[in-house]
Amino acid sequence: MEMINGVTVAVVLFGIGLLGLIIRRDLVIKLLALGLVDSSVTLALVSLDARQDALTPIWQGAGLAYVDPLPHALVLAAIVINFALLALALVFVMLLVERYHTTDSHRIAHEIGRETEE
Amino acid sequence: MSIALLPLFHFLFGVASLIWKKGGKRLFYLALVIDSAIIASLAQHLLHQTSISIVLGGWGRDIGIELVADRVTLAFSILAVLLGFAVVTYLWRDHLRGYFHLLLHLLFGSVFAMLVAHDLFNIYVVMELLTLVSSLLIGYRRKPQQIWASLNYLMLAALGMGVYLFGVAIIYYHTGTINMTLLADRLVGAQGQGWLIAAAILLVAGIAIKAGIFVFSLWLPAAHATAHSAVSALLSGLVIKMGIVALLRLSLVIDMQLPLLVLGAVTGLLGALYAAYTYDLKRMLAFHTMSQVGYMLIGIGVGSELAIIGSVAYAVGHGLFKGLLFLTSGEVVRTTGSKLIPEQISLREHIPRATRVALTIGTLAIMGAPPLAGFCAKCLIAEESAALLLQVLLGVISLGTVVSFAKLLPFFVYHRAPVGPRPITISFSILGMAIVGFLPLSFSFVPRSQWMAELNPYQAAEGMAIIAIGIITYRLIRKHPPALSQHIFRLEEAILVILAALIGLFALHVAF
Questions:
Q1: What are the start-end ranges of the E strands in B370-447?
Q2: Mutate which of A13, A112, A114 to disrupt the B interface (most B C-beta within 10 Å)?
Q3: Is the torsion defined by CA of B50, B207, B301, B470 positive or negative?
Q4: Distance from CA of A90 to the nearest CA of B (A)
Q5: Nearest Cα to B129, choosing from B146, B147, B107?
Q6: How far apart (Å, rounded) are the C-alpha atoms in residues B436 and B441?
Q7: Does B131 touch chain A (CB under 8 A)?
Q8: What's the CA angle centered on A8, arms A73 and A15, to 5 degrees?
Q9: Looking at beta carbons, which residues of chain A come within 8 Å of B148?
Q10: How is chain A split into domains, by residue range?
Q11: Alpha helix (H) ranges present in B227-280?
């Protein structure tokens, strides 16, 4: 098995996304990192049964070798869900930016902490 | 076909309540009545068989989507309907925008979908749906704190579900199926192998982020404390429980005893510790939810049939009384104008009578006072956990509950109190009656003979003793708060803590 395949790339991408979520303070970049995490998981699912000698699971005739179509179906659902999550998160970020004029998570958290104490 | 209808028609009603905006509340009542009818027919079926199963679209199990309804489904559906009636009555006087009812319908639809889900990917989809709906509900009033809590929740939950899906990928790679029934067959020889342990930890950690487990669900205190009280009641009573249901279903197929017991202990102790020294009423209730999840996890982790029934019963009971407590907390905050318990107590003569009675019932039930909901279920779990360590642990968690709720005791001194608004009184009495009458209610999902064998006067005495010791302990320790970190609840730190906990779980497995 080659070292560079779908699964290892997915794990590396997951790590990069996680790192981005932790160390970047900009909320938009955090969401990009979150998108990377989600995509890495879909990549892992798709590449589970990827083979050179089999066709994509679209009907091209009987007797041919196809890869397993189930992960592809799962991935379609996962992509749509992640799209919805990111879109909603961006709306929340937009509402926060309207009020605090910054996308810096530390400053927003600080401002909100101060407002709650008052 | 009825079990597929349960989630489906809620989604239809949601759309209908967008079109007929003025009738949102009436449509919701109607939906709950239809739910009750379907649940009654389900209960009828379950008298003769342990579960009902259908595969949608007439496919086989291997590629079709299978839905299964069993006693767990029944128990949580009853909880959902009761909470639904209480919450929508509680909101009777509020002016709500049309889409609030849409969200309520979507929430109930996805809860029922979760209860009948029988494959790993369905659980994933429904969990994500619950994330979306509950984050919209948390941010419904659009206060900045709510939006921020909601955004944190959304990001952590998305991360958690990513971790979960990695676990699903590993399992699918090795077994070629995600259907629980087929998995149970194919995993028979595989328990204890490295890949399965790794997958189990990923699945548990992913769901733990959503299920209100301490060190994983650090978004929870802010989210449940800032949301509208009716929303908090639903989140804490129902949405958190769906994570528990997912863990329960998984634990029947995959061996995950060690992570469940460890997480149960950690969340039970830390949740109670934070709850004991938090004086913001709703935040205290939120922390306390995390502590009670520990009870349910230990029940599931012990894994015997009775212990699991005990967990389910406790989860349902907890949904009832924590829902009631969150609803009353909204009334307490509204009538006294303060979030902090000491200030509320000094203004307690403004709190209406029904609210105070409801608060009393909720607190007594959560402390485990004998005939109420909390006591019955705690007995089952405690009876089944034979190991001394577990016994001590459960005792300490109960004690922590009493200690953290002892600061509410001054509410119960009798005063002449004003009469509260009628819908709210009705809402409280629905949940209050369910808590007092929990034992007969639970006969629908717990075999009667088992209750009768487990409940005895010694346990009642034990329950009362724990309450007494807890109140004394509270008196002794309240003056000396330990330095509890509040930093871990920030987004970045929360992710770091989750990562550390995940690595910790792996290390634990390597060590044992």
A1: none
A2: A112
A3: negative
A4: 9
A5: B107
A6: 10
A7: yes
A8: 95
A9: 96, 108-109, 112
A10: 6-117
A11: 229-234, 240-253, 257-276
Q: CA-based Rg of chain A, rounded to a whole angstrom?
A: 20
Secondary structure (3-state) at B453: helix
Does A81 contact B125 at a Cβ distance shorter than 8 Å? yes
Chain-centroid distance, C-alpha B465: 27
pLDDT in tens, chain B (512 residues): 577 778 888 888 888 888 888 888 888 999 999 999 999 888 888 888 888 888 887 777 777 888 899 889 999 999 999 999 999 999 988 877 778 899 999 999 999 999 999 989 999 999 999 999 999 999 988 889 999 999 999 999 999 999 999 999 999 988 888 888 888 888 888 777 888 999 999 999 999 999 989 889 899 999 999 999 999 999 999 999 999 999 999 999 988 888 999 999 999 999 999 998 888 999 999 999 999 999 899 989 988 888 888 899 899 999 998 999 999 999 899 888 888 888 888 888 888 888 888 998 899 888 887 777 777 777 777 777 777 888 888 888 888 888 888 888 888 877 777 888 888 888 888 888 888 888 778 777 777 776 666 667 777 788 888 888 888 888 888 887 788 888 888 888 899 999 999 999 999 888 87
B492 near A CB under 8 A: yes
φ, ψ (nearest 5 deg) of residue B370: -40, -65
Would you call B132 and A85 a contact, using CB atoms and an 8 Å cutoff? yes
Neighbours of B419 (CB within 10 A): 9
A53 burial via Cβ count (<10 Å: 0-12, 13-18, 19+)? exposed
Q: Show residues of chain A in contact with B139, CB under 8 Å.
A: 92
> Taken in order B234, B236, B237, B240, is the CA torsion positive or negative?
positive
Lookup: tokens for B494: 């929360």
CB-CB contact of B473 with B370 (8 Å): no
Q: Which residue of B has its CA nearest to A22?
A: B492
CB contact under 8 A, A21 and B155: yes
* SS3 label, residue B119: strand
- DSSP code for B419: P
Contact flag A95-B150 (C-beta cutoff 8 Å): no
Which residues lie across from B117 on neighbouring strands? Answer: B67
Which B-chain residues 173-202 have CB contacts (< 8 A) with chain A?
Answer: 173, 176, 178
> 């709190």: which residue's tokens?
B351
CATH hierarchy code of domain A6-117:
1.10.287.3510
Cβ count within 10 A of residue B97: 11
The single-letter code of the amino acid at B21 is: K
Q: Show residues of chain B in contact with A95, CB under 8 Å.
A: 142, 147
Alpha helices in A2-118, H assignment, sequence order: 6-23, 27-46, 70-100, 105-117
Distance from C-alpha of B349 to C-alpha of B347, rounded to nearest angstrom: 6
Inter-residue contact B52 to B3 (CB < 8 Å): yes
What was the ipTM of the complex prediction?
0.93
Residue contact B151–A84, C-beta within 8 A: no
Beta-carbon separation of A96 and B63 below 8 A? no
Residue B56, number of CB atoms within 10 A of its CB: 10
Cβ contacts of B408 within 8 Å, gap of 6 or more: B341, B359, B363
Which residue is it, tokens 């790794």? B198
Smallest CA-to-CA distance from B53 within B179, B149, B178, B198 is with B179
Question: Which structure tokens are listed for B34?
Answer: 């239809």
